[in-house]
From TrEMBL:
Residues 139-278 form the F-box/LRR-repeat protein 15/At3g58940/PEG3-like LRR domain. It comes from the Eukaryota. Pfam families: F-box, LRR_At5g56370. It comes from Brassica napus. Residues 45-83 form the F-box domain. This is F-box protein.
């Protein structure tokens, strides 16, 4: 068989058309036998069910998916049932000289795609020109997607051809009340707008995931939006306040993940007992004006301790109930979300006797993009030595440390590593020794012992002395006790 690939699918190794061939001999006009290949052009892919065809189309862009409608009658309406749409008007800037009416035609095409779609639409992303905010078309798209199509995940990003990124948020987003309050809508991302008022978010208990990126407004507007979104589990704020006064208040008992990058802000107050991860990209306020009430996130190192130069992430590793996914961990591992991964320093707490938590720590460090400036690993207090017969979640106590692979990986490297609440247990010693010998720590390992009795102090000092005697992956590595 000969496999003929549609160019747009070749990269994903998807067979678009199968052409079967067979050998046959025929006589020529001169009486000689000529060997030829007869091709049977049966389109077996088109005979597949709609579910399989949609799975094939899910590997390509919306533009390529819509083009399949010209292949045959069989493909004419398949694209209209795809669960995801990405409508990107930015490509027009690259392919046209912006003649009058070009953007108007493109906007009408977006409208037609939304109206023609007749399947179960889960997710839609729209990159649009600022003019759609001014002529009411963006409002129409939102109304169609949220209240008619009952979309679950909506992403809207404004762009202005030729404008610098820090000026794009001057486009005002002024929508009718409760524009985002439909119960089916659970995830919303807005980028590069000026938010005039909070009424579009009234009664938004339905939202679990909210990202406001490049948004400017008054601090009172942001606070009103957050008060209206009572069910948030994931919140990402990259915002600018019009005037540097007032306090940004985040009070949510369901919040698991919080990302903050706020300029022209006087202070921040966070109250969230369920918060596992808080990441600070940039904050213009001082440390005394940043108040956080979250019992899990108590570390010695933070955004200000590293000198307000490096973004910082605080991560309390915990294992959810059986069968549930860790929302924060999924975000940390999501390679498509670059702004959530370019963190230069991190504090993380972990139970080294829990194999599942140790694996989660390894996964996060292994996918980190580039060398890290600083890592603080805070050992949970239940890391005291256990009997050999005891077992941890998922594995026996020492099974993880018997693995000969580098921890977390051969590529990961941090200039400074803090080991806090160090008790000298076998698990803690194993982790520290791996980092020293494998070159995970480049410059300095700082060990902060736990509060212990004089007798345990001698054991800790002995463990640190043994660590100093180990062969080092970096010759100039220093090991000190804090």
């Amino acid at each position: 068989s000969l496999f003929v690939l549609c160019p747009s699918y070749a990269q994903n190794h998807i067979c678009f058309l199968v052409v079967q061939s067979m050998d046959k001999s025929i006589s020529s006009t001169e009486g000689e036998m000529v060997h030829v290949e007869v091709i049977n052009t049966d389109d077996y892919i088109s005979k597949l069910s709609n579910d399989l065809l949609l799975e094939i189309l899910s590997k390509s862009s919306t533009e390529e998916v819509i083009k399949t409608s010209i292949l045959s009658k069989r493909w004419g309406n398949v694209w209209k049932k795809t669960p995801c749409l990405c409508l990107d008007m930015r490509r027009i800037v690259k392919t046209t000289t912006l003649l009058p009416g070009v953007f108007h035609q493109a906007a009408n095409s977006v409208t037609k795609v939304i109206q023609d779609h007749c399947g179960h639409l889960e997710r839609c992303t729209i990159y649009h020109d600022s003019r759609q905010c001014e002529n009411g078309m963006l409002e129409f798209w939102i109304q169609s997607l949220v209240n008619v199509k009952h979309i679950k995940d909506l992403t809207l990003e404004n762009f202005s051809p030729g404008s610098k990124s820090n000026n794009r948020s001057n486009v005002t987003l002024d929508l009718p009340p409760r524009s985002f309050s439909h119960p089916r809508l659970t995830s919303l991302s807005l980028s590069q707008y000026n938010l005039k008022a909070p009424h579009a978010f009234l009664v938004c208990w339905n939202l679990k995931n909210l990202k406001l990126i490049g948004i400017s407004s008054e601090v009172e507007v942001f606070n009103a939006v957050l008060v209206a979104c009572t069910s948030l589990e994931v919140l990402a704020l990259e915002i600018t306040c019009h005037r540097k006064y007032g306090i940004l208040k985040i009070d949510n008992h369901n919040l698991k993940f919080l990302y903050l990058s706020c300029s022209r802000i006087k202070g921040v107050e966070v109250s969230s007992p369920s918060l596992d991860i808080i990441s600070i990209g940039s904050l213009s306020c001082e440390m005394e004006n940043f108040i956080i009430a979250s019992p899990r996130l108590h570390f010695n190192r933070n955004y200000w301790a590293t000198g307000k130069v490096f973004p910082h992430t605080s991560y309390y590793i915990s294992c959810p109930y059986q069968g549930e996914a860790s929302i924060g961990h999924e975000i940390m591992m999501n390679g498509s979300n670059v702004c959530m991964k370019m963190f230069a320093s991190m504090s993380v707490s972990v139970d080294l006797t829990n194999a599942k938590e140790v694996e989660m720590l390894r996964q996060v460090l292994a996918v980190w993009p580039g060398d890290m400036q600083e890592v603080e690993i805070l050992f949970k207090s239940n890391n005291a030595a256990r009997k050999e017969s005891e077992s941890s979640i998922g594995n026996t106590q020492n099974a993880f440390w018997e693995d000969t692979k580098p921890f977390p990986s051969a590529q990961f490297c941090a200039y400074t590593v803090w080991l806090s609440n160090f008790s000298g247990s076998n698990e803690e010693f194993a982790l520290a020794s791996r980092m020293i010998m494998q070159g995970t720590v480049a410059r300095c390992m700082i060990i902060k012992p736990s509060t212990v009795s004089p007798a345990n102090k001698l054991e800790i000092e002995a463990a640190i002395a043994r660590l100093k005697e180990l062969p080092k992956g970096h010759e100039n590595l220093r090991i000190v006790m804090f």
